[in-house]
Write a sequence for this structure.
């Protein structure tokens, strides 16, 4: 099946003296359109196996939004609404929306103090002053508290908008835990095609728990950042996508889904 590809090349300026040598052509690859996912385009179209050729780090949604996806060190993990978290063994499983990149460490920061979600994001903003830059962010270590969520799968089309399913999401609480946050900070001009701002998924050290981050408090972590300079969007080819109304502004829905409540 043929999928059209849209590529946007960005040139980024970065602070001197803070970068690793290899900082060019770090591409963010996205399969699907975020506002389409928000509006009910949940049928997978892009094989998870093919994502491995586009990146070894990232996050996304499984087919029929059966939970949450996370990609780390070239492996894919799925957290279902039951809380069950496993490595994806059937790599031909399809995703309706995922974003990945090959992670190259450009910046490293060690944090030995507690921060809640607001303080963490403020701190990250101070480290990443280019508000229009694309950043992949890996946070590894100890967390004093985490709250994650996952959606149950849908079964029959037409599917409801994702914001209309907030009452069905399942939440998971973790205290004094260790693991990885995998995520991005993307600029405002990428909203609707992608998800602007911060977006993280979690995976425990034991690889048996995870989900979309709703709340977080760090305790002792290492933050590594990969600076991205290009963006490729893989567009689905399906009747549902062809007739989807992208004129509707879904930015508020995206915000509600990201924080897990209206």
């Amino acid at each position: 099946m043929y999928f059209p590809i849209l590529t946007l090349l960005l040139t980024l300026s970065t602070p001197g003296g803070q970068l690793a040598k290899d900082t060019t052509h770090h591409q963010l690859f996205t399969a699907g359109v975020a506002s389409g996912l928000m509006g009910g385009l949940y049928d997978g179209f892009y094989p998870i196996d093919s994502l491995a050729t586009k990146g070894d780090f990232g996050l996304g949604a499984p087919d029929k939004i059966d939970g949450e996806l996370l990609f780390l060190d070239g492996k894919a993990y799925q957290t279902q609404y039951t809380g069950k978290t496993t490595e994806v063994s059937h790599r031909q499983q399809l995703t309706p929306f995922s974003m990945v990149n090959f992670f190259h460490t450009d910046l490293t920061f060690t944090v030995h103090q507690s921060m809640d979600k607001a303080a963490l994001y403020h701190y990250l903003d101070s480290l990443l002053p280019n508000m229009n830059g694309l950043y992949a962010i890996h946070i590894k270590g100890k967390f004093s508290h985490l709250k994650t969520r996952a959606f149950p799968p849908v079964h029959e089309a037409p599917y409801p908008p994702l914001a209309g399913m907030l009452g069905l999401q399942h939440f998971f609480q973790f205290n004094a835990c260790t693991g990885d946050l995998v995520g991005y900070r993307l600029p405002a001009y990428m909203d609707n095609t992608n998800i602007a701002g911060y977006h993280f998924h979690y995976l425990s050290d034991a690889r048996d728990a995870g989900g979309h981050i709703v709340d977080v408090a760090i305790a002792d972590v290492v933050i590594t950042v990969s600076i991205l300079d290009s963006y490729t969007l893989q567009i689905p080819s399906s009747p549902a996508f062809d007739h989807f109304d992208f004129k509707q502004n879904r930015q508020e829905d995206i915000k509600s889904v990201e924080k897990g409540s209206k």
